[in-house]
Amino acid sequence: MAATGQVAGGLTPYDRRVLTAVNAGAASLSFVGSGFIVLCYVLFKELRKFSFKLVFFLALSDMMCSFFSMVGDPSKGFFCYSHGYSTHFFCVASFLWTTTIAFTLHRTVVKHKTDVEDLEGMFHLYVWGTSLVVTVVRSIGNNHNHLGTWCRSQSGFTGKALHFITFYMPLWGAILYNGFTYFQVIRMLNNARRMAGSISDRPYQSDARAETKALNKWGYYPLILIGSWAFGTINRIHDFIEPDHKIFWLSVLDVGTAALMGLFNSIAYGLNSSVRRAIQERLDLFWPDRLRRWFPSGSRLIRVQNEESELVSLKIQDQH
Q: What is the pTM of this model?
């Protein structure tokens, strides 16, 4: 039995309020970051290429996941189910969209295929269909606890097992796939750069080093999912072992990092050179001449950074 003043699982009302505040604050940041990428895609026609379209759907999924994490009162039945199933659906869709981006890069760069645009329909079927299936399966044996932000928590062993199977197993499968795929892409591009550099002059080698440095940032992309859900995975495993005792600090890290996934994705995937260039071009139209004289180097620095960090997927897309 829980101690006096505590609820099931060892969380006090104060603990629940803290978790609710952490979740709302982190989800708000993710909502703003993801919404910014969605807005850029809608406003800037030059961004509406296939490669960035995948980023758009990733940001859209993150935005909806963050939205349903913020709205409603999870302590009430209807909002609890709406909160639980909606966040589950869109969070699964989010990390599945990252696998389509990794697949597109691998197929284009490693396999040298140019048919990725023809696979868009399959991508949608794969992402939305899989998200729907795992969300429906998760409802089997469902019994919500109504523990503040943990409306998605399951009190029964069957519900907890299904939650783990329908969310964390696909999640870590996506992490492993993304890591392996980006490793292959980066290794192939680095090998190509070294071969080209051995037969080229020094200026080309300098450009190649800058480009390779930008490409190596892809190696951090799988770390976004790991950083977002590592504490959540540990917390779920701990909940299996000791279901009547929750660790508050682990719960805070679980809720906070998971809710920040949309912000991390919007920065890593969305704020690429094409987006920065589109924003800079709009700013230049309204940038007063008197201020431009005071900050002449800012635009040049941004343009140089844009050229160095251009995603290969976007470059290849421009060639089609």
A: 0.80
